[in-house]
Amino acid sequence: MKCYELQGPGGVDALALVDKPVPQAGPGEVLVRLKAATLNYRDLLTVKGGYGSRQKFPLVPVSDGAGIVEAVGAGVKTFAAGDRVIGSFFESWLGGEPSEARMRAALGGSVDGVLTEYRVFPAHALVRTPDHLSDIEAAALPCAGLTAWSAVVKLGDIKPGQTVLTQGTGGVSLFALQFARMCGARVIATSSSDAKIARLKQLGADVTLNYKTTPDWGKKARELTGRGVDLVVEVGGVGTLNESIRATRIGGTIAFIGVLAGPATADSRLPLMVMQQQQRLQGVTVGSIEDLQALCDGISMHGVKPVIDKVFAFDQVKDAFAHMASGAHFGKVAIAIG
Q1: What is the DSSP string of 192-219?
Q2: How confident is the model over 262-318, as pLDDT tens digits?
Q3: Quick check: 212 and 192 in contact, CB under 8 A?
Q4: Helix, strand or coil, per DSSP, at residue 98
Q5: Which of 94, 212, 240, 265 could be disulfide-bonded to 192 (CB atoms 3.0-4.6 Å)?
Q6: Residue 29 contacts by C-beta under 8 Å, 6 or more apart in sequence?
Q7: On the CB side of 246, how many CA atoms lie within 13 Å of its CA?
Q8: DSSP string covering 107-122, please?
Q9: Is 268 helix (H, G, I), strand (E, B) or coil?
Q10: Percentages of the chain per state (helix, strand, coil), in multiples of 5
């Protein structure tokens, strides 16, 4: 089989396409023929060696993939050859509260990921692909989809009539917009591109704000709602946190997910502002296998489909990373593996 290996922290130039034997499924394991993968911002950080001490080399990168069961090992009763499946981001987090042990095995970081033609998964770490999704669409779910689900549905507990603010047009943000609408919430979406703003409106955003022409978008969001939003899906990090706090109502929640806005210096008033408004700053790191199943059940019931920006061939992986890094995408950047 062919797979990509990251030989060291040298960026995409350190990615090598190598030949390896097809692995065999042992007891309790499933051999999956990967059909598709999608990229996350975390994958860009990983190829640069930014995953910290848990990152190993050589590493098969990328966490999010979907495919078809090729064979099952002894004792596996839940899957059979031909089943369409998705691999979970955390293979050891079956359910319940997060812990160091449950979050140790993270695909494409501390363990090999899915940028390969075949991969063996523990049977418990797989969920069935929703029937209404293609393999490309299903590959968007394990990290981006589940992170947004955790932020909006599980931890955010959004109810009909509430207001959610999303940032930008990456995979997590678009999923969050879709899930908020699915829950009956109003959505305020931000972007720096008027063309992307038009597409956000088509996707269901009730209000859109261009954060370049409206740099005080947090204040504007509070004005528009009269009291502030119930939930901000914060993917920018410290660089956008000031405005997120200003946008959030007293007693509201900021789901803290990403670092897209860079390592800007935090306003020294931030802790005081959060305390004074009794806001909740909720860290979100993907979710469990049980949560991934709940996500699949939810989108199957409502017919929600991921937004796919562009699909690259398996021999165009470096181009896919470059497209992701450019920030030009609207939704998920995908790779067709087989």
Answers
A1: S-HHHHHHHHHHT-SEEEETTT-TTHHH
A2: 544 555 566 677 767 878 889 999 999 999 999 999 999 999 999 999 999 999 999
A3: yes
A4: coil
A5: 212
A6: 72, 73, 76, 120, 121, 122, 123
A7: 15
A8: BTTTB--S-BSEEEEE
A9: coil
A10: 35, 25, 40
